Amino acid sequence: MTFLEEVKSLLVEAQRRPIEIPKQIQKEFAKDCLTAVHKQFTDKRESDFRIRMSNVGRPLCQLQMEKKYATDSTVGYADNYNTKLRNLYGDIIEAVIVMLLKTVKANINGLQGKVKLKTKYFDIKGTYDIIINDKVYDIKSASSFSFRNKFSKGFQSIASDDVFGYLPQGYLYAQSLKKDFGGWIVINKETGEMLITEPPQEDYKFKREALRRASKNIKALMKDEPFERQFELKNEKFGRNETGNKVLGTVCSYCQYKHKCWGNEIQYLPQQQSKSVNPTYYWYVELNNPRSVESEKS
Ligand code: SF4
To answer: Which of 1, 9, 169, 189 is most buried, taking the most CB atoms under 10 A from its CB?
Structure first.
């Protein structure tokens, strides 16, 4: 049985009868939860931009923006209140998984360890999540959408659209420890389902490409290469037809620098031709075909 299958059968067992979680493991879980609270609420924040293993694989344009506005507290922060809670859930879910892995006596060789790797410019640092059976794993809590449509579809699916830089992150941790990357232990935070998304046995090409992406971004940031958007506007469609409006694509819509990047005139509006009671909202950059007065009245 794999370590995740052991965890799943423990959870099934826990529905039938009380199970034993050793006191020491419970104490460590409580400590991890408190650490998560401190991390999300009370710990001092870094004010400088730092290239880390966890961010280096993100789109270069976002990193350039982050670097440029690092000391401007008015830019780059999500002002929605739920981000903090979402991050806290993520940290606590991670602590739960670690507690369960310890309870089933998974062969854990390292936990939350600090690592660094020499680059041409500086030592890049990071903190890996867990080493099991001598492989480095990252623990991710995922929405139902990303659990079903990304992680369940396998390693290739993440690799083909890796806007969060998950591959460079995982391979940099593994490289710094001279171990193999085992993939992601993923928990659907809405349903509690779990899976492991593993790299293929022959993952050399993925590793090479991930490390190459990290080096390219490091070089561009260290040399202050000119800013270039990595994403284009989308021609909006309603049904099968183009509306003539231009909207931000998914990555830009969620980017904290979209106003700096596309201008303060961008507008978050309901789909302009939709008559639905709950229309989808988009970030409009060019509004050439706005909602007509008739459709407002109807
Ligand atoms: S808004 Fe889009 S193009 Fe601009 S920095 Fe963000 S991700 Fe890059």
So the answer is: 169
